[in-house]
Write a structure and sequence with these properties.
The structure is a homotetramer. Chain A is α/β, with parallel strands linked by helices and about 325 residues long. Chain A is built from 13 helices and 15 strands. The two termini of chain A are about 20 Å apart. The model of chain A has no long low-confidence stretch (mean pLDDT about 95). Chains in contact: A-B, A-C, A-D, B-C, B-D, C-D. At the B-C interface, strand 9, strand 10, strand 11, strand 12 and strand 15 of B face strand 9, strand 10, strand 11, strand 12 and strand 15 of C.
């Protein structure tokens, strides 16, 4: 049994974390905190947790939280996490950070997030928490940089061919579509129901801050420079991401070989599923689960890869719990059925 | 040709007004205003109006607006309208006010809206702008109190039997469901897509401020005291209201007679349609139109009336244009096809 | 460990059953069947079950199914269940039937479903599977009539006052709203996305076949005749039901007493949650869970009760698993976290 | 005043045509037909047309229809149109065909639609009804092949650079997303609300039958061979298409020049609107209108073009009415405000 704290429990990812951890057979939630006007039982703030999670959600007091837990999940906005992560680490607590603060080299981070990095000390030791890439390092880490939602869907779809595309000089075109919870729980006109429903919106085309994250991780994995073109869209659904990825067939293996390769890479992965050749996954196949489903089709000289995840689970809180499982020696699927 | 101004053009009802007036063969929009950070062409603020409505949306300057128009639509929050309506009237401009400020006697208004009424002078002469009830008075009025969205759907459904229910002492039960644009364009967590989508929410049960509006109008129409029980719900759709109304059959006429009565009352109305006995309308039948569709079914000893409107059209801006048509001697359907 | 079979696995409730049973720590799915063109692994028919449920979904062969399981879930259309339930019972298998076939006395069934009942023999011993009402009888039963979705939401909301409303002669008005999966997975124009999205539709007003189920169960529970007026609506959401229930305050206890009463009745129930006075639940509070949330408000002389469930879980498959848990002596919440 | 007939009036495009034509100041609907079980007033089949379009929708009788109209709209499935178009043309009636039957050379048609073309005689004279490309030819044509919905969104977005991409040997990548009415009004499980809502689905990737239509038209326009990669997705919205188009910047003009070029080409077009550099349109900007909005952004070395239309209007029925206006010498915007 592990004692866990969720800091930032009132956002969409925080809430989802609480849900996963509550169902987890080996975890006990001992602390919930967030910036709140009035401290109150979590089940009072979110009645869906009545008869489930009744402990009080308090304003953050690092000492108090550290005293009652073994591991801390930070579901905070970027730039905020790096203020608190060091404090928990110094008290010997393992930290899984869901923000972007520990995912990138400081120079890249500062360029794309427009702020100084304030915890370069721990940044160098942080492990990028994509189990399919870094399982061994995750096991022994004190600080996990939990991947971004878009990057998870794209990196898993490109990892097996990262070397090939680097060698062939291919910069994949990634057309992603995400549900609205990906933007967080916010009072904002562009996120209002009347603006999102029955709409589709393309934003930050080829200049979204998740693009350098994809490039950084794929470059490391391939041992060279990988570039992607990344264009996200806002979908009128609550949860789910689809990334449709385009690459010229030239330079890549033929379809059957590709499928074999992907199956080889992911066969033993508990949360990645490869479809038979030509069959493409849809968002409802993974909504509410921690799976990433990937389909590959070669047609008209193009390789088309479709990757889907639930942005709140494999794209955030589910993956964080998967990381906790690895760090704690639990069954990797615990709490994530 | 009439010159019209829209004050409060950037909300959902303001935008809808601009759309109707732009299509109107006899109206010319000469002024758009709202509380804006930066004055700009309306088509720049709302690109859906490019190549359609290019005039600049400015911060409100009463003199300037009055100089260029014959009639003013106030699409403002309640308590704000009553500050500006008198100024336009004093300058000889006709006013159609879409807020609640001129719909109720001041005592009732003050009780339900929690503020002092600041323009009792004009309140007494304001005409409640429900054409099916007050067409003659609307024609000659300087100040129209455009009805609320829920009240429009409910009053039209009950007008023909208002006398009967008063006499029988029946307080109808009104279960209403409204699309999210009814709450206005606002930065607010409860109106965020992630909170409204795939949800249904009951709010202000039997204490919504539209309830006294229904009771006041139905009481006047029936020559006595009418009470209703009104419970609204927030639907995950952009536009449309359905009111399902329940009354005991005792005290009312049998189904066939009721349908005959409703047909008699509404046959010549351009925007009310009565269904054959037992057939009930759905929201898509009226979405995007100025119609109110009403169906009546008697079953299990109950009279069940279902009434649907588009909350932004017959429930707000369409009805406002219908009132303008009546006041100006235009074809009542102009701009509302 | 119990071996279970799902007959009718390819509908929405069948699929949801498979999901719950797969997560269940004490159940093993040993057989899946349905009317299929081509027998195939379930994970091939529904890729969301890949790496989860790979057994083949076959056309029904009663002997074969009975040989491999201890308990059978029938997720079949009404009139079909009563053909197969007797066969499984005769082979000593316990049956949980999700259709309407064993919920009503044969005379009522025949009147409302328009067909002869073909298994009166077992009908008399069937137990209505609402744990909050019949837990003890469920424990020892061979045949469970799993309640309808609308009736579950309404009966749980009215059980504590069933005696009071019978005595006071109150026939509650029940305005229900259901997500589209409640109608099953069907090729049908009225259920097409283009007809349901952005719409709301009232159907079978006061003559839906779930009404006699509510009346029958509430009458038995209150020791007399209870009548309800039941009007369902089709919501543009995938899952969830809200029932808004109206009763005159006269004849019922005051609000505080009512809340106390409901808390007394349901305090120890694992899947019913009562809100504090005046607070009403919304569908997202229970979507994806087996909970029924109930709120009570007294206003304007009316008692208004709002009850919400997930139609596929507490309204069907979740409740079926809850019944299995009771029949098998498992923790009642197993598989339903 | 022109007398018009709609054949196939009961599908989504048929219904939308009736709506546009009803609003049209110069058109009179004299005949509606479709494959119907029972002939009935259109307003009875679709109550949203009550007090608007009351004429009877009959089973098709070519002679009868031809006797009462000057122009015929065929809103029929492909392969069916080519059976009827010749009959109307032989009777001297102008035909606007919304199917794919007259859009492609017969060899291409037969390859992609898998059937023999049965009216090659008229095929050679048919004019592809994209006003922005063929206005002069449309004016004098007897038979219009109304463009497909996806092709309209893509061809308008690429026309100004068709020559450049041909010369540079660029095959644009087109990632399109369409609302569910694009698939027609059908009883089909994949189109059921429970399958489409909260989902996103990629289908017929790089092998959709609209791809050769795009290539054919762009090739003709550029005087050479143009190839595109086209991948459509099904969106959980009722109406609207977005096409996100990717091309390498090399070989194309810089951003400012491109915007100037697009503005030059489309400035006088009543229904195409170009956004300022870097600003991209969203679906709600055009839903319910006949506009095509196009935005261009150059970033990371890519030219990204986003084009949006309403699939039922500019993508089908609105464009058909625009063609009628051109053929009849009406204001091109008549009926399409």
């Amino acid at each position: 049994m592990i004692k866990v704290a969720v800091v930032g429990a009132t956002g969409y990812t925080g809430e989802e974390l609480v849900d996963c951890l509550h169902k987890h057979p080996e975890a006990e939630i001992t602390s919930l905190s967030a910036l709140v006007d009035k401290e109150a039982p979590f089940s009072e703030m979110f009645p869906r947790f009545r008869k489930k999670v009744d402990i009080t959600c308090e304003n953050l007091d690092v000492d108090k939280v550290a005293n009652v837990c073994d591991m801390v999940f930070l579901a905070l906005p970027h730039t905020v996490s790096m203020k608190f992560a060091p404090k928990f680490i110094e008290k010997g607590k393992k930290v899984i950070d869901l923000s972007a603060d520990y995912r990138l080299p400081s120079t890249v981070y500062e360029e794309w997030y427009g702020v100084k990095h304030m915890d370069k000390e721990h940044l160098v030791d942080a492990v990028y928490g994509l189990p399919e890439l870094n399982r061994a390092a995750i096991k022994d880490s004190m600080l996990i940089a939990n991947p971004g939602c878009y990057p998870t869907s794209v990196i898993l779809a490109l990892l097996p061919v990262a070397g090939m595309i680097r060698e062939a000089g291919i910069a994949p075109i990634v057309d992603s579509k995400s549900g609205a919870t990906g933007a967080g729980r916010k009072a904002s006109i562009p996120l209002a129901f009347g603006e999102v429903d029955e709409n589709l919106k393309c934003y930050k085309a080829n200049e979204h801050q998740h693009m350098p994250e994809m490039e950084h991780v794929l470059s490391l994995a391939s041992g060279g420079d990988v570039k992607v073109n990344f264009v996200p869209h806002l979908l009128p659904i609550r949860r789910g991401i689809m990334s449709t990825i385009y690459m010229p067939g030239k330079g890549l293996s033929p379809a059957k070989k590709l499928i074999e390769l992907y199956n080889d890479v992911y066969d033993n992965e508990p949360f990645v599923r490869i479809r038979p050749e030509g069959e493409l996954p849809q968002i409802l196949d993974v909504a509410g689960t921690n799976f990433c489903d990937i389909g590959i089709k070669v047609a008209g000289g193009m390789v088309i890869i479709v990757s889907v995840i639930d942005n709140l689970l494999k794209g955030a809180s589910g993956q964080a719990v998967q990381n906790m499982n690895i760090m704690s020696g639990f069954n990797e699927k615990a709490g994530l059925l």
